[in-house]
Amino acid sequence: MNIQLKKLDAVSAEITVDLVKADYEEKVNKAIKDYAKRAQMPGFRPGKVPMSLIQKRVGTSFKAEEVEKMASNELYKYLTENKVDILGSPLQSENQKELDIEKDDFTFVFDVALRPEFDATLTDKDKIVYYDIKAGDKEVDEQVSRLCQQAAHPENAEEYQDGDVVRGTLTELENGAPKAEGLVVENASLMPRYFKEEDAKKLFEGAKVGSQITFNPWNANKENEGEMASLLKIDKSEVVNHTGDFLLEITEFSRMVPAKLDQELFDLYYKDSNIKTEEDFRARIKQDMEQQMAADSDYRFLLDVREYLAKKVGKLQFAEKFLKRIMKANNPKMEDKAIDENFEKSIEELQWQMERDQLVKQTEIKVTDEELHQTAVQAARFQFAQYGINNIPDQYLENYAKDMLTKEEQRANLMERAIETKLSSALKNVVKLNRKSVTLEEFNKLFEK
Predict the structure, then answer these.
(1) What is the SS3 assignment for 432?
(2) 413-436 residue pLDDT tens
(3) Which CATH number, 3.40.1080.10, 3.40.50.40, 3.30.70.1050, 3.40.50.720, labels domain 2-114?
(4) Which residues on adjacent β-strands are paired with residue 2?
């Protein structure tokens, strides 16, 4: 056996694996003998088929299988033992000659992409901007308003206001009068704000309890069968028979009224805190917002680290033709044009991944199982917070996080998040920070570029 690596240029190489009969003969014979023990053929008892017939029947295919397997195994063994740092997986060379399995000696040729050499090490001589986001009165006011709205409660009103739920009795009409055997829907509930027809919305302006309004629900909802079925409390298949006018006699307006800034609201969001006044409540909101925005600052910091390294390291050389072949192999249905269009972006991501790997090694970052679990808990808490659900019991979050970690793709994403969180934190103690205090509005504008 002979294995040779030939560099084609700085980032690509060709590896040749030469096999002779002595290398593979024993494995091929063993595979054939193992097969012979269980082989069945008409006229012979199981396991008693003559070896000559076995050889004729499967010898060639077993030989091809074992030779190719050995070539692949020896290739990877060579790469490991010689610490050849490659990108992606080796591919059979386009220069590979078709194998003549009847011969005794074989030559396999593989193409590999070599990882480009570069240095992404950072020190205190590297100066990178870090944005400290401050929550202003405007942001705190908006958050207070959101929290009050989330804790809103329904109250009855005497006169319609946009956003109210309107309840009453719906009577189906025909020629302006109640339709014989027509629908009568008691306690019908609707929200004119969400009508698709503006003229229908206007009919409710100034309406009061006891008002009677004639309108066409079918037109108001732009012929939405689902909305009509829900409003009229009938099956969707029946909606087509009730597309005319209805009379609504209003019995109630229900209005969601934002919660007051009182102890009940403070305890709802911060039950275990000693918040007694609006000033305390706003201060805690400001604190929570700035803690949450600190994670945004860290995220932005890592983006700026990436941009800084792109300039410091420069554009690396890659085995582009080979990497496109890998993309094609991994996405066989992807057209060559699409590969070309996405290649530059893929290379940018690859370079950052390599730079990040160096930084992780430099800062000796490792993510423990507990840290990964806590990342999942934080992700779960954030998901619920997006829907205004802030007081989720810890046990529920724990179970939700465990479920996320059982899913391979989610686990991989959470691991990436944990690594980048730790890397951002570590690099703040490595480089020199150019700290800038910004408002949330100013910070958000950074992402408009």
Answers:
(1) strand
(2) 999 999 999 999 999 999 999 999
(3) 3.30.70.1050
(4) 18
